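Customer escalation, tier 2.

The customer says the design service returned an amino acid string that "doesn't look like it belongs to this structure." They asked us to rerun it and document both sides in this ticket. The original structure tokens are below, unchanged.
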């Protein structure tokens, strides 16, 4: 897609941020940075019965689309492959905002919501997408592991969601206490929250080999 023709975040009627709209993001670069920093997307579908389901999955961003992979037997992936409309969210939790009232206590976050329908990828595009999803989760790992066999690929649905109807909200603030609460004798402020890898734990066979350098060098 020509980047100049992609609608700005929040520019459709369905994606316009209405409540606390000062947190809305119009910069596509911020949307992309949030998607690149996240690891899990929550993907929604509505079953034929009308029952909605929201399912967490891995993903990667490739330019102006999101890539997903899952089993051909998965309800979520089958529905998406049929062209069911979806709503996908990626949320990064950055901290707890501890105000002096329950009402003003909140969270700092960065979040993206994307609406649309997926297309099924095939051939080289599908194979590349599988590598990109792996690279997004842990860059460098793909080069060390066995690539999927034809049989494994046949059992996998790989989907792309265009990022042409998205919105984003970012909240990054200190507590905004009401005047009546500011002198309350209690600590207030922000407690930052960061995702990080712990020390790698080798399995029985893994302990015979050095910990790959990409595990040590990669941070979120
Ligand atoms: C962090 C994370 C990343 C994941 N990444 C992927 C991925 O990339 N690809 C992939 O195919 N799957 C992934 N999964 C698993 C995914 O969430 C679903 O469990 C799986 O895709 C099966 O979906 P389905 O529609 O076939 O569910 P079904 O098996 O049809 O679901 C039946 C019922 O099981 C329950 N259920 C299913 N999944 C979950 C869940 N995750 N949590 C709680 N209850 C559940 C629900 O009640 C649901 O109605 C991931 C899960 C997590 C937590």
């Amino acid at each position: 897609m020509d980047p100049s023709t992609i609608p700005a975040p929040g520019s459709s009627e369905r994606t316009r941020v209405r409540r606390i709209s000062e947190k809305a993001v119009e910069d596509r670069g911020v949307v992309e940075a949030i998607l690149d920093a996240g690891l899990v997307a929550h993907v929604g579908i509505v079953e034929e019965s009308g029952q909605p389901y929201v399912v967490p999955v891995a993903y990667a961003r490739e330019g102006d689309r999101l890539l997903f992979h899952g089993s051909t037997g998965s309800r979520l992936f089958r529905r998406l492959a049929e062209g069911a409309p979806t709503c996908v969210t990626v949320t990064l939790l950055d901290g707890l905002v501890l105000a002096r009232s329950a009402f003003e206590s909140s969270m700092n976050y960065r979040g993206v919501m994307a609406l649309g329908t997926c297309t099924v990828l095939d051939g080289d595009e599908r194979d590349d997408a599988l590598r990109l999803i792996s690279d997004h989760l842990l860059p460098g790992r793909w080069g060390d592991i066995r690539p999927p066999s034809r049989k494994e690929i046949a059992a996998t649905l790989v989907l792309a969601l265009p990022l042409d109807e998205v919105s984003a909200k970012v909240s990054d603030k200190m507590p905004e206490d009401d005047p009546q609460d500011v002198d309350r004798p209690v600590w207030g402020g922000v407690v930052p929250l960061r995702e990080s890898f712990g020390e790698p734990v080798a399995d029985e066979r893994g302990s015979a080999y050095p910990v790959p350098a990409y595990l040590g060098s990669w941070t979120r």
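Tier 2 assessment: The sequence is consistent with the input. The chain has five helices and ten strands. Residues 40, 53, 55-58, 69-71, 74-76 surround flavin-adenine dinucleotide (CB under 6 Å). Sent an explanation to the customer and offered a walkthrough call.
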